[in-house]
Amino acid sequence: MLYNYRMDLILIQQILQNCKIHPDQLLIVGVSGGADSLCLMDLLHRSGLPILAAHFNHQLRSEADADEAFVKDYATKIGVSWVVGRGDVKGFALQNGFSLEEAARKKRYSFLFEQARVNGAQAVAVAHHAGDQVETILMHFVRGSGIAGLRGMQYRTVLPEWDAFIPLIRPLLGVERAEVEEYCLDHGLQPRQDETNTDVNIFRNRLRLELIPEIESYNPNFKTGVRRMGEVLAGEESLLKNLTEQAWRDCCRQLNPEIVRIFPESFSAFPRPLQRRLLRYGASKLLPDLRDLDFNAVERCLEFLAGAPHHGRMDVVDHLILEADYDAWFLMKQGAAIPLNEFPQVAEGGELILSVPGEIELENGWWITAKVCAKPGDYQSQENSIIWLDAELLHEKLILRQPRRGEQFQPLGMSGKSVKLADFFTNMHLPRRARAGWPIVFSGDKVIWVVGKRVGDYAKLQPRTQRVICLQLIHH
Amino acid sequence: MLYNYRMDLILIQQILQNCKIHPDQLLIVGVSGGADSLCLMDLLHRSGLPILAAHFNHQLRSEADADEAFVKDYATKIGVSWVVGRGDVKGFALQNGFSLEEAARKKRYSFLFEQARVNGAQAVAVAHHAGDQVETILMHFVRGSGIAGLRGMQYRTVLPEWDAFIPLIRPLLGVERAEVEEYCLDHGLQPRQDETNTDVNIFRNRLRLELIPEIESYNPNFKTGVRRMGEVLAGEESLLKNLTEQAWRDCCRQLNPEIVRIFPESFSAFPRPLQRRLLRYGASKLLPDLRDLDFNAVERCLEFLAGAPHHGRMDVVDHLILEADYDAWFLMKQGAAIPLNEFPQVAEGGELILSVPGEIELENGWWITAKVCAKPGDYQSQENSIIWLDAELLHEKLILRQPRRGEQFQPLGMSGKSVKLADFFTNMHLPRRARAGWPIVFSGDKVIWVVGKRVGDYAKLQPRTQRVICLQLIHH
To answer: Which end of chain A lies in a sparser environment, N or C, as judged by fewer CB atoms within 10 Å?
Structure first.
């Protein structure tokens, strides 16, 4: 009786506190039929929480259908609703180059979260216990992980890979495997045995059955030590996450689901360890399925950015690139189009006619207006969003269009000297992404205004100028 | 030749950059005579840095004296000054309950840093290489360490255990053992062999010779992965250290080498993971020899403090206690005396005579003055650092002394009712540490003023009062 009392205490405490569960909202419980998940289902049901048992039949072992039948029968017997899913795990594995365990896991979680969405459940509960936690942490260590891996699994976590909102919870994370077995014995549960649990060809089983006992010969308290380590690291990971999110607000902006903009000056001011985290955080926002950006990818990004390139692009990992373009860096999905709403832009191909007086609306709140006006006092003004021209020198109708390859321009003041528009853009440090669509005003074949940047020499005001036309770029 | 070029590059880069060394200041180099330290000495000398080779003879192995002679001869041959130390490692181990390796390490580092101080060296250099790094990280993992352990060794670090200022540097930390051996071969170095390096009874050797190869059967790239992990964690540890130091300034103050004061409200506002770090940081300031506060000790402290006790005390680890006293918590060495300079205090035993007019200087800038004055308008004032009394009711001379056990006091306003001074202190939430020495003003055997806290009823001003005496507590 003492024993059950402890399990109940742990349950109440961990479900309500660690897993942050509402006692009256539905939980999906993943049930394989083994001791752990059977114990979990029984416990949750016994404590009065509304649950739906979800069994996924991987169709891999000969006992798979018997397992399914067992779960259905047992759930029915204790009055728990159930649902069963099936999937072609083998085919899925072959198709995607996954290992069988990996494919099984993906199919199973996919099913569990699908059920959670369909049934409006508050969370998906799985039966990982303290022993699994040690294996998970060790596995991450052997593979060389960061803190997020070394802290192990969490009582409650949102995994965007499965669902952006519904959390995965692990009520038994503080419970020993021996306690689970004792619980089953005490309550007359007769769980199914999964022989694959002893198959040392499976990475995790080999860790459990061989490596952990080996390490315990160095430190008999290894398991306890590792779990404490995980607990401390989980806390420190949360501190670092906060720090990263703070820094993120200072130096990054997600423009859309495919693009993160990085502000070079603010980003570069952060210490390298925080820059690493920012890149990994950005990548996780763009590719929720990506477990973590690997060490080399992050270091290559940092080398690239440390060079502060005017313009350049590198592959980060599959489907993810990093692009530098003057005042902006972009971490983005391959093929994504960077929004250009901060610049005046004109569509490809067309020619817009700008009458005087008249106005043209570009996209994203940009306008260009033309009107006749009085001769200004200082008509060599360097203000480039408003310009004055000698109407006598202009065609009646002005043309607004994109620049064409090789087109020349004689900027005001550079008497007699023409430059290619492309070179002018470079000299102006105009971001590369904005160049192709940059609006240019022509009179006939003469460039009279690189909009917002520089007026041309051709129709500049003269002392003898009588009629003045004024063009203006406006952003609402 | 290509090979040497790489070693030189690594050396220059790592010494100057990672180890932050001045090229013209002396380095102490620990040289055992083995391949690693011989390579280190040779490299540093060859690169033109001023070094002093320091060999510590542990007198443990039969070859110890031959090793010593070898180091002296080789250093002399290449023109490097040397110094040799000896110590009774066995006796030291027995005396302190250390293992032989632990005792040897302590004696050796103690000697190296002593030499650094005596010779005004900028740092002590030791020959740990990339292979040692993997072992160190694995050792910490097996023992269940935090990030500070899992990041492994650092190129440059100050270890207060050995010296508060002179750093330990590890120039070879990025160099593989195989590279060291190749270097020795290329340069005709013939290092001494240490047979104890293959003794699997030594923890570290067993890790290197048995556990690491075992783990490599799970992940052939384990060593690389672990070293990258260490690199990332080293950066994150520095982020967390900054965060801790920021928080420290908000909620802790080191009063002297033995006591840290914690401000309960600010401390409690920080998340638990940061509280853990603050306690460990505080402990490291008080006990520099303490490697790290263990998990359980930290959790017990947090439980204790979470109870927000008015007054209490707990043992943290040997020689370290945590004391809560109303508005202050103290992490302190056993037996340390908490400074009381924020309170008026009077010495034990004595009786000070307060003449009117007159003044008494207490310690730490506290004064009590007495004078005759005009009758105040509002003579029931609640201002407790200045009080007015009816001179007719007082003895000519007032006495200032500590309270005695069981003494009673009739506070102003509680007509007729007396309380024990001890209870009055409790009701006033006066910190326990200040009570024994709290100054009380007596007229005969009547308490007329609990200084700064409450005037007594006995000599209070009356409508008929003619002569008024004014007492005041002043803090300069």
So the answer is: N
Does the CB of A250 have a partner CB in chain B at under 8 Å? Answer: no
Residue A48 has pLDDT above 60, yes or no: yes
Note whether B218 contacts A: Cβ–Cβ < 8 A: yes
The CA radius of gyration of chain B, in Å to the nearest whole number, is 33
Could you tell me if A106 and A100 are in contact, meaning their C-beta atoms sit under 8 angstroms apart?
A: no
Cβ–Cβ below 8 Å for B273 and A239? yes
Cβ–Cβ < 8 Å for A191, A66: no
For residue B24, the tally of other CB atoms under 10 A from its CB is 9
Pick the residue with more confidence: B381 or B473?
B473
Residue type, B313: R
Q: In this structure, is the dihedral angle defined by the CA atoms of residues A297, A301, A306 and A309, taken in order, positive or negative? A: positive
pLDDT per position as a tens digit, A349-368: 889 999 988 999 998 899 99
What is the rounded CA–CA span in Å between residue B287 and residue B284? 5
What angle do the packed helices B130-143 and B222-251 form, to 10 degrees? 60
Q: What CA–CA distance (Å, rounded) separates B393 from B457?
A: 11
Adjacent-strand bridge partners of B157: B168
The CA–CA distances, whole Å, from A386 to A91, A344, A451 equal 65, 14, 9
Nearest to B333 by CA among B295, B289, B374: B289
What is the secondary structure of B12-45 as a DSSP string? HHIIIIIS---TTS-EEEE--SSHHHHHHHHHHH
Query: Residue A438 in contact with residue A356, Cβ under 8 Å?
Result: no
For testing contact with chain B, the best of A17, A140, A147 (most B CBs within 10 A): A147
Task: Give the ranges where B329-399 is alpha helix by DSSP (H).
Answer: none
Average pLDDT, chain A: 90
CA distance B389 to B376: 10
Comparing CB atoms, the residue among B222, B277, B295 nearest residue A228 is B295
So what's the pLDDT on residue B228? 93
Q: Which helix (H) or strand (E) holds B212?
A: helix B212-216
Interface membership of B279 toward A (CB under 8 Å):
no
Judge whether B354 and B399 are in contact, CB under 8 Å.
yes
Q: What is the mean pLDDT of residues B95-113?
A: 93
Tokens of A152: 């192990």
Provide the residue type at A427 as one letter: N
**Average of pLDDT values for B406-432?**
88
For residue A103, what pLDDT is reported?
A: 93
**Alpha carbons B457 and B409: distance in angstroms, whole number:** 9
Look-up of token digits 């990548």: A283
pLDDT value of residue A202: 80
Which is higher by pLDDT, B277 or A350?
B277
In contact, B411 and B424? CB cutoff 8 Å: yes
Strand ranges (E), B337-432 = 352-354, 358-361, 366-373, 386-390, 398-401, 408-409, 419-420
Beta bridge partners of A142: none
Q: For residue B2, is pLDDT > 60?
A: no
Contact criterion met (CB < 8 Å) for A225 and B271: no
Distance from CA of B294 to the nearest CA of A (A): 10
pLDDT tens-digit readout, A60-91: 888 889 999 999 999 999 999 999 999 899 99
Instruction: Label residue A316 exposed, middle or buried (CB < 10 Å: 0-12, 13-18, 19+).
Output: buried
Global ipTM = 0.85
User: Could you tell me the pTM of the whole model?
Assistant: 0.87
pLDDT of A28 strictly over 90 = yes
CB contact under 8 A, A236 and B147: yes
Q: What is the pLDDT of residue B1?
A: 37
pLDDT band at B396 (very low <50, low <70, confident <90, very high): confident
